[in-house]
Amino acid sequence: MSVRRLYHDQPAHFVPSGTTTAFADLAVTRYPAGRQASAVLPVLWKIHEQDGWICEPAIRWVAERLSMPYIRVLEVATFYTMFNLAPAGTHFLQVCTTTPCWLRGSDGVVSACREKIGPEGVVRADGKFSWIEVECLGACVNAPTIQLRSDFYEDLDHDKTVALIEALERGENPKPGSAIGRHSSEPLGGATTLKDLSVGGDD
Ligand code: FES
Q1: Ligand 1 cavity residues, CB under 6 Å
Q2: Architecture in CATH for domain 91-178
């Protein structure tokens, strides 16, 4: 299990966007009075969407907004690996290297990221990219997998990862999902069971 600490170089302030503030205000109303702490995950996630990472002043902002002890918000932010704790590029690639992805070639995905972006956890000079290794993304059947924002790019290898990064560099919006044309998580070559759509479903 990785040790997750706050980034060593923190901004002085967190500046929420109007969207983030409105989201936090609405999130609080979804829970009974006195239970506003229940909104901690969605509010942190909104901040993550805004900045690409969770900074220490943002944790204080959430604690104040939700009337929570600072340490409780800190615990949540550092526990869940979906919260990036360091500055990220515009395109923040989370590369799964857990066993199924590793067995299916995540080393090649990692090497492509190193070649095209640079060292893990370091924002590229143009500010557009950064990447980190993460634990299982829950898409093992289509390993190896990269998460980018809310999308998964699957069935990758070195060259397909390079192509993905280059498409992003050109400002394109690559189609998420399998890079080898698999539909959902079907086997290569298509479904092998439940192919007769006329069977069942009438009662
Ligand atoms: S091991 Fe990579 S998605 Fe599960």
Answers
A1: 96, 98, 100-101, 136-140, 143, 145
A2: 3-Layer(aba) Sandwich (3.40)
